[in-house]
Amino acid sequence: MARSTRETILAAAAELMHRKSYGAVGMKDIVAASGAPIGSLYHHFDSKVQIAREALTNAGAAYALLIPSIVDGYPDLGQAIDAVFGQAADDMQTTGFANMCPVGSVAAEVADTVEPLRETCAAVFDGWFGAGTGYFVGRGLSAEDAREVTVALVGALEGAFVLARTLRDTEPLLIAGRVLSSRYRGIALSALSPRVLPTAVGPAR
Amino acid sequence: MARSTRETILAAAAELMHRKSYGAVGMKDIVAASGAPIGSLYHHFDSKVQIAREALTNAGAAYALLIPSIVDGYPDLGQAIDAVFGQAADDMQTTGFANMCPVGSVAAEVADTVEPLRETCAAVFDGWFGAGTGYFVGRGLSAEDAREVTVALVGALEGAFVLARTLRDTEPLLIAGRVLSSRYRGIALSALSPRVLPTAVGPAR
């Protein structure tokens, strides 16, 4: 039961940060959203910062699976990138332009003010870069190309998310996808090898 | 004097949001940073939201000049884009990875929670897209290409800013510049025409 309460608190905090970013979420909000009494929050966690760190780390691990889950289906890197941005645009439209990445929005908010959260967000981004690079190496790219496409893809998505959420318009996502995919069209991705894949992306999965 | 106090308040608020984003900035912080008494804040402005709206609008107008000021010097679109990201990377390194764009960080924080501020940030982004498109049309691009490069450039910069600030590393900016410039290398920019330029970017200047 202790484990379940802990997870309920983290899930509630993740959902609140997803909608309200970090500063606007209070311990009282987490109490109300999780149903856990305030004493239980302080039994499991030292502080709001600690709750946020664990919730963002969990969210980061879950998000690390999303891009590979889309790219898996494509034999061409340019097509795969188009599909990632197309899916993101569809998801934003369907959700009424919900925040697609609480790690990015919390990082933008606290990078100069809440150092432990900056460190957590940096670890999540580093984890994505490592996992994505490993994934694309597993699909046959050189290490350098794999890191380039991973870092460029995450950056272009984060920027387009902010613009699209703010403008309530998918145009920034569709343009980012068109521009980024044009660099990678014609670059073949090798078939997924069950032997290579778990090793390559293992740490983040 | 009334005008000067107003401007002092807005400049202090802009600087505070630059470092602390929006939620963590209180009216008391603006009082302390501006030196203006609290009564003066409420004489000039209805609320913190109104101060933030005007400060972000001013910041947006100032930032609209930055990209043209760099691109002006280049006859090739790809080279110009490389220069924009190179300058941004230098600026981040020099400032110890300061926030390069309070409009982006505030937008990421409040897009789902403070509707008037979302609207202000959307108007700033729209203004940048219009001014940038006008600028590149003035340098000889088609309207469609001009809008594409403008939206892609703003999105890639915003995303790379968040990653670079969080990671304390310029790699995301340098990779974004390399990837984006590769699409546009070899596309000539025509010489600046004094007659075309003020009309094209006039509204945002």
Provide the helix percentage of chain A. over 70%
Distance between the termini of chain A: 25 Å
Low-confidence stretches of chain A: 195-205
Shape of chain A: elongated
Q: What is the CA-atom radius of gyration of chain A, in angstroms? A: 18 Å
Main pleated-sheet profile of chain A: none
Instruction: List the quaternary state of the chains.
Output: homodimer
Most extensive interface, residues per chain?
A: A-B, 50 and 50 residues
Structural class of chain A comes to: mainly alpha
> In DSSP terms, counting alpha (H) and pi (I) runs of 4 or more, how many helices of chain A?
11
- What is the string of helix and strand elements of chain A? HHHHHHHHHHH
Rounded mean pLDDT score of chain A: 92
The total count of strands of chain A amounts to: 0
Q: How much strand content do the residues of chain A show? A: under 5%
What's this entry about, in short?
Two copies of one chain form a homodimer. Chain A is mainly α.
Please characterize this protein's 3D structure.
The structure is a homodimer of 205-residue chains. With 205 residues, the first copy, chain A, is an all-alpha fold. Helices cover 74% and strands 0% of the residues of chain A. Chain A is built from eleven helices and no strands. In chain A, α6 runs parallel beside α9, α8 crosses α9 and α9 runs antiparallel to α10. The longest helix of chain A has 25 residues. The first copy, chain A, is elongated and about 55 Å long. Chain A starts with a helix and ends with a helix. The interface between A and B is large, with 50 and 50 residues.
